[in-house]
Amino acid sequence: KTVPRCAVYLPLIPSGSERSQDMTFIPPHRGRVRFDQVRLTTTFPFGLFAKTATLPFGKELIIYPAIDHQVKLPEWPQGIAAVESRPERGFGPTFWGLRAFVPGDYPRLIHWRASARQGTLMVREMEREVDHQILLSLAPWEKFLALPDSQQETVIALAASLAWRMSERGDAVGLQLPGTFLSPEPGREALHRLVRTLALLDPHTVSNVVGREATTPIAGSSFSVLQW
Asked: Which pTM was predicted?
């Protein structure tokens, strides 16, 4: 879908120069939002007549479901205890190793001495304990599909919010949908893969879901399942 019209005003762009201006807009929905074209209008030089040119733009954003950072996390009752803690790469006190810097890494983790030796930015990876492995599920799917669209969106936003909060506290979070199974993994990359899957979810066309194709958990896996 295409976004509503948004306007940015630049009072002056001198010849041969560039200007940038931030633009704020509220996405009308989650999922893919396209910016198909940009229209330029100017009254230069005298302000008497407006001249307009429309140019193709062709940019696309993936809009995440609304994330509630204050959502209450569920209490784990006895008998639904998570799997035992295990070491994983992440933010912790123990050094894990070095790897090349990638966009999104925290600058404070850059190892400057190793970067100088390698001739490229290197970052420290730390070890942490993963306390829980949690699988979010929208099952039973038939019950979910029977909800009005607005309530479906509420459930999807809740799943994304829970995933975000659980990942922030160090949990490994996965997702199960018809035809898609994302195994519980910790870390920012896994979180964004999960939330992006929810962002692109079309409840009535499950084939639109982006993710690793599987319908059941991997044999021998052990984690807590959280259903809506």
From this structure: 0.64
